[in-house]
Design a protein that fits this description.
- With 492 residues, the chain is of the alpha/beta class.
- The protein has three domains: 103 residues, Rossmann fold (3-Layer(aba) Sandwich); 168 residues, Mur-like, catalytic domain (UDP-N-acetylmuramoyl-L-alanine:D-glutamate ligase, 3-Layer(aba) Sandwich); 148 residues, Alpha-Beta Complex (Protein-Tyrosine Phosphatase, Chain A), CATH 3.90.190.
- The protein is 34% helix and 24% strand.
- The chain is built from 15 helices and 21 strands.
- A ten-stranded mixed beta sheet has the order 8-7-9-6-10-11-12-13-14-15, with helices on both faces.
- The longest helix is centred in the middle third of the chain and has 18 residues.
- The termini are far apart.
- The relative contact order is 0.09.
């Protein structure tokens, strides 16, 4: 585990105290995770400052909300701060971290700062290798529609709110609990949702056994009398549920509700009807000795989102007693989250969609959903940017399998993020098995993609009804508008 932070230790209460002297300074404040901690602090009235390597709309938004923001890092930025907040991606060599250590200023993980803001709330924490952003977003919208006025901190911008975090007056606080660095152990949830337990973030955990151990520790953090909501369709999540129910495993004493298409699920998903613009299903709920059915309607596509919505329903209705009709209405009105199957535009019937998927399970789900949408008569083109050299090395064959349903695959160079390049690790590790399987694959630099798409359009290989997706957790997201412009320029 990460030796830099003690995630199990008590969260310093004064971090979120607006009356405590001094500012809280956040490094990389414009990032999705850190900004999700900054916004609740600001809304509590805490004096907040922050820095980031480059300017962004997130910095402008935070400044408008009252934060003192800086572009670039400088030791002077920590002067007068009572705490420094960082993510695991910030190295100890960062000049602001060095200055804080030298001056005895406490250095906290972003999750610890966020956890301080949840004090006194009914925390619903959503964890899992895949689906946690969408599930926590669905849960937030559902609770809002049910009149619960939940606070929330998510890994992506909720379209309905125009932000990734907000502090509200209701008792519930929905948190996307990030397992990537062990920080999901901070929150002490009343309701813990585990969408799946799969091998990922092996740069941190080393192997699947340590991943599974971390999820057991997560379940142990459930408050007395709380609930675990676990996916019966995922082997790792189902194993957690069995262990808790046995009374001998982690989280002993917590109530367990399972969901999924598995016949034994407490919230059984039946009669799934998948459409290009949404889905329908029936939730057969077996709880407290009573069986009830509810119709689930969604405007987001894909069977994986039906599961995500079932998890949100269980957490909201069975977990904290939210109004069931309101929850179903909120799920039906859910408009999505930024970078989760987000439509960027359409040119002559060619749709361009962007998605944050970056591990094998996420990529497999989004590619399968996209191919189901276009059907056999239209083409799916996926532009994929691998994220992290370690993940690409460890899971290249899995990525190839996940991308295989696409009619064309474009691979970009690895987005290293916090990692240095690894010799011999690049997109060719994914391209080779795709070619061996007879798939059409191209390895390009990112700046070549718009011109390539225009050439595809000009040659008649992209037409009305086709779908082009940009996929990955790096800067591939910026290509969508460029591709749309190129497609317009290539109009016959």
């Amino acid at each position: 585990m990460n030796p830099r932070f003690d995630f199990i230790a008590s969260v310093p209460a004064d971090v979120a105290d607006p009356d405590a002297p001094g500012r809280v300074h956040l490094v990389a404040i414009g990032g999705a995770g850190v900004s999700a901690g900054a916004r609740p602090l600001l809304e509590r009235g805490v004096a907040v400052s922050g820095s980031d390597a480059k300017d962004s709309p997130a910095l402008a938004d935070l400044a408008e909300r009252g934060a003192e923001v800086h572009v670039g890092h400088d030791p002077a930025h920590v002067d007068g701060a009572r705490a420094l907040v960082i993510s695991s991606a910030i190295p100890e060599t960062n000049v602001e971290v060095v200055a804080a250590r030298d001056r005895g200023i406490p250095v906290l993980h972003r999750a610890q700062a966020l956890a301080a803001c949840t004090a006194g709330r009914r925390v619903l924490a959503v964890a899992g290798a895949n689906g946690k952003t969408t599930t926590s977003s669905l849960l937030t919208v559902a609770l809002t529609a049910a009149g619960a006025e939940p606070s929330f901190a998510l890994g992506g911008e909720l379209r309905a709110e125009g932000t990734n975090a907000r502090l509200r007056d209701g008792e519930a606080f929905v948190v996307e609990a990030d397992e990537s660095d062990g920080s999901f152990l901070c929150y002490r949830p009343e309701v813990a949702v585990v969408t799946n337990v799969q091998p990922d973030h092996l740069d941190f955990y080393g192997d699947l056994a340590h991943v599974e151990a971390a999820y057991r520790d997560f379940v142990r953090t459930i408050r007395p009398g709380g609930m675990l909501v676990a996916c019966a369709d995922d082997a790792g999540s189902a194993a957690l549920a069995r262990a808790v129910r046995s009374g001998e495993g982690p989280g002993a004493g917590a109530r367990v509700i399972t969901y999924g298409t598995a016949p034994e699920a407490d919230v059984h998903i039946a009669d799934i009807d998948l459409g290009p613009k949404g889905s329908r299903a029936v939730l057969v709920v077996r709880a407290d000795g009573v069986e009830q059915t509810h119709e689930l309607v969604l405007t987001v596509p894909g069977e994986h989102n039906v599961r995500n919505a079932a998890a949100a329903w269980a957490a909201a209705v069975l977990g904290v007693g939210a109004d069931g009709d309101g929850v179903l209405r909120g799920l039906a009105e859910f408009g999505g989250t930024r970078r989760r199957f987000e439509r960027r535009g359409v040119v002559d019937g060619i749709a361009v969609v962007d998605d944050y998927a970056h591990n094998v399970g996420k990529v497999e789900a989004v590619v399968r959903t996209a191919k189901d949408i276009v059907g056999p008569d239209h083409r799916l083109v996926v532009v994929f940017q691998p994220h992290l050299f370690s993940r690409t090395r460890d899971f290249a064959p899995g990525f190839a399998d996940a991308l295989a349903p696409a009619d064309e695959v474009v691979l970009l160079p690895v987005y290293g993020a916090r990692e240095e390049p690894v010799e011999g690790v690049g997109p060719e590790l994914i391209a080779a098995p795709l070619r061996d399987g007879g798939r059409s694959v191209h390895v390009l630099e990112d700046e070549e993609v718009p011109a390539w798409a225009a050439a595809q359009r000009a040659a008649g290989r992209l037409g009305a009804g086709d779908l082009l997706m940009t996929v990955g957790a790096g800067d591939v997201t910026r290509l969508g508008p460029l591709i749309l412009t190129a497609l317009e320029d290539a109009r016959p």
